[in-house]
Amino acid sequence: MHSFHTDSRLFRDALERLGEASSAPADGQGPEAGEAGAGIDFVSDRREVAPPRVIGRLVALNGTQGVISCPLDTSEEDWSVGHLITIVHKAARLVGAVCDVETHDGRWSATEVNTARVTVELNGEIVDDSSGAPYFHRGVSSFPSLGAAAHRIRADDLRAIYAFRGREGVEIGRLSQNQAIPAEIDVGELIRRHFAVLGSTGVGKTTSVSLLLRKSVAMRPKLRVIIFDPHNEYAAHFPGLAQIIDSDSLELPFWMFRFDELADVVFSGRLPHADERDALYEVIRAAKAKYLVELGSPAATSAVRRQPMSEGVSVTADTPTPFRIIDVVAVIEDWLGMLDQRFPRSDLRALRYRLEGLNRDPRFRFMFGRLVVEDDIAKVISRLFRIPTRGLPITIVQLAGLPNEVINSVVSVLARLAFEIAFWCSGSYEINVLCEEAHRYIPADSRQTFGPARQAIGRIAKEGRKYGASLGVVSQRPSELDSTVLSQCSTLFAMRLANELDKGIIRAAAGASASSTVAFLSSIADREAIAFGEAIATPMRMKFADISGRQDDRRVANAGERDAEPIDLRRLAAQLRGEAG
Predict the structure, then answer these.
(1) Under DSSP, is residue 211 helix (H, G, I), strand (E, B) or coil?
(2) Strand order in 491-494's β-sheet?
(3) Torsions phi, psi of 221, nearest 5?
(4) Is 370 or 112 the better-scoring residue by pLDDT?
(5) According to the per-residue pLDDT averaged within each range, which of 296-310, 358-372, 466-480 is highest?
(6) What residues form DSSP beta bridges with 443?
(7) Of 232, 377, 435, 452, which has the fewest Cβ atoms less than 10 A away?
(8) Are residues 200 and 567 in contact, defined by beta-carbon separation less than 8 angstroms?
(9) What proportions of the chain, in percent to the nearest 5, are helix, strand and coil?
């Protein structure tokens, strides 16, 4: 194998020993000499390179990888798997990530120079622009020939690889390879096109996600964030930025639930038979009509009389119209007294007992606890979805204190409303729905989840980008997530993962250009991540900044802050009901 040196004095000494001084190349050509058996091969390189940066020559190449042969000098700076190198080709420098290192003969000598075979994965190329500044392009336009010189990457080239051109980058940490270079993201692409943070328990997902969200709300004034927090972990990371909603302060009236969502609560997650479900639908519809009649509205009077609805007016069990549980019980009592029964009496009695029990259960007071039912949908969405923000653009919904049988329905209602509000606000409102432990709500097996919650979150993933609704997915088991929803996340932060199925999901999402980087997933440190996607200039191994004790990223809340584009809550409430607005 060849061993290459760049010391010009050694080169001249070699020429003199061979009596070939007259054939020496002209000055300024930057020759490199290497011993090869009994002779000396001369390879000219058009770039004058400082000796410490030259590591060897290209000896093998295919469409995605190259092999560098180089001597290992223990006196020089250490370099190993994960480091970046450049290969000189014409006016460009090809960038490669080291993915495998081995000695040429599989042995190590303590006295002689050891020669290594270094396999690199080609990621792109760097070309200097007219001003001499390096510019990085993904992909490789043309490939070098064997013998091309490989160099240690320059600091300026390294910055160019991870820098944004024409877009504003926001720092979220530092490169693992070089702590002096910031790791940056494009917040606009992160939020508009969904993102996912995936990693095992204890690797720092919560602090990393909190950093991403704080950077996002600081850069996007219209953005609101609603966090589904199953373990009550996020409140400490958003001082002065978040409205905390727990089991004691949550107000989500039962009449704002759609029929499927309310039925899941009433039947405690079990699958009801057809008569039970139909009976619940009809009594809810009748109770809503009764409430409207008492308000003086002609709507739904026919529902009580079992006659066709008034022309141009409709009331269904899905319409977010107030009704009272006592009216539902009264309708059931009326039906039980009828001779001509549409539904079995046993089903009606069981339904009455269940509704009365929910109405008295203190765990469900956030749904049924009001003594007086009133139409305050505007007030509810104002508080939950920060309209106006009043200096608190983030809502943290702490789910840990809620009854287990109602959590899926609550998530479904909030995710559905988030999409509908963004839709009706026509671009004046942006919201990111962050699903912590997302595999609970959008698992790979559709039979293991609550259908309405899955549909609401899936709708944001598929259609939300058009209207300003985006999704943040956080999970420790990517292999258990709905693949369709995960594929919609255009930016991924893969933290430490040990499970092979989980790593396979990340490897498939990253593609061939980042497969060697993904190989580190089992061994990276806490708060480290392999980041790739639309919000990242190029796939990178980085470490999130530690926000646990920092104050510089915390924005002071101002209760008097006003939104630049106020939203008409009354009009929005009417649109959510399907009324002309």
Answers:
(1) helix
(2) 182-185, 170-175, 540-544, 528-533, 491-494, 195-198, 469-475, 430-436, 223-229, 394-398, 242-245
(3) -60, -30
(4) 112
(5) 466-480
(6) 481
(7) 232
(8) no
(9) 35, 25, 40
Q: Percent of the chain beyond pLDDT 90? A: 46
Closest by CA to 43, choosing from 57, 54, 55, is 57
CA distance 161 to 27: 33
Tell me the C-alpha distance between 119 and 65, whole Å.
Answer: 7
Mean pLDDT score of the chain: 82
Q: Hey, what are 349's tokens?
A: 């009695």
Instruction: Look at residues 437, 545, 522 and name the one whose alpha carbon lies nearest to residue 185.
Output: 545
Tally of residues, the chain: 581
The CA-based diameter of the chain, rounded to the nearest angstrom, is: 121
pLDDT tens column, 154-209:
888 988 888 887 778 899 999 988 888 899 999 999 999 999 999 999 999 999 99
CA distance 147 to 149: 6
Pairing of β 469-475 and β 430-436: parallel
Asked if 184 and 171 touch (Cβ cutoff 8 Å), the reply is: yes
Q: Which residue has the tokens 């499970």?
A: 499
Angle between helices 259-266 and 345-360 (to 10 degrees): 90
pLDDT in the model for residue 273:
79
Q: What is the DSSP letter of 474?
A: E
| Better-scored residue on pLDDT, 365 or 33 | 365
Closest by Cα among 519, 515, 507, 517 to 540? 517
Q: Are 452 and 442 in contact (CB under 8 A)?
A: no
Contact 531, 493 (CB under 8 A): yes
* 18 burial level (CB within 10 Å; 0-12, 13-18, 19+): exposed
Helix or strand (DSSP H, E) at 492: strand 491-494
- CB-based contact 157:95 (threshold 8 Å): yes
- What tokens were used for 500? 């092979």
Q: How confident is the model at residue 79 (pLDDT cuts 50, 70, 90)?
A: low
Strands (E), 437-483: 469-475
Kindly provide the residue ranges of all beta strands, DSSP E only, lying in 476-534, ordered along the sequence. 491-494, 528-533
pLDDT above 70 as % of the chain? 82
What is the per-residue pLDDT for 107? 87
Q: What pLDDT, on the 0 to 100 scale, is given for residue 574?
A: 84
Distance CA 419, CA 431 (A): 8
Q: What is the 3-state secondary structure (H, E, C) of 76-106?
A: CCCCCCCCEEEEEECCEEEEEEEEEEEECCC
Please choose, from the candidates 408, 437, 422, 401, the residue with its C-alpha nearest in 3D space to the C-alpha of residue 225.
422
